[in-house]
Amino acid sequence: MTSGDQPTFDLAVRDNAEATRYEVTANGELAGFLTYRLHENRVVFLHAEVDEKFEGHGVGSRLAREALDDVIRQGKQITPLCPFVNEYIHRHLQYVEHVDAVHRPEFATT
User: Per-10-residue mean pLDDT for the chain, 110 residues long?
Assistant: First the structure.
C-alpha cells in the first residue's frame, strides 16, 4: 500500500439487542458502537463511538446509516439524542420524516 492509499475494511453492522447497541466490525474487529434505548415505539439513540484507528474511513457513517435504516424497517421512530446521529440526520434529510415529533422541528430547513 502506498502512502496515498486508504485502508479498506470489510464492514458489518449488527444490532446487539442484549447490549442495546448497534455494533460495527471492520475485518471482524469491533470498530465502534451506537447505544440506544427502546421507549414505546421509538429508538432513542444515546451515544456513538468509533475506535480512533477506524476514524475517517466512513465507519461511523455506515454504523449510523444501517442503524437508522433498521429502525425504519421496524416501523419505529427515531429519537436522535446522540450528537453524531443528530448531525448525520442533518446531512441526510431523508431520515427526518422518521424522527419523532418532538425532535423533528430541529431539522426544519429555512
Answer: 60 97 96 97 98 93 98 98 98 97 86
pLDDT of residue 8: 78
> Is position 6 within any domain?
no
Going edge to edge, which strands form the sheet with 42-50? 11-16, 21-26, 29-39, 42-50, 77-80
pLDDT tens-place string over residues 87-97 = 999 999 999 99
Grid cell for residue 71:
429502525
- Which CATH number characterizes residue 15's domain? 3.40.630.30
Number of C-beta neighbours around residue 16 at 10 A = 12
* List of residues 6+ apart from 37 with CB closer than 8 A: 20, 43, 44, 46
| Residue from 42, 36, 38, 40 nearest 84 by CA | 36
Per-residue pLDDT at 5: 56
Residue 2 placed within a domain: no
Range of the domain at 96: 11-107
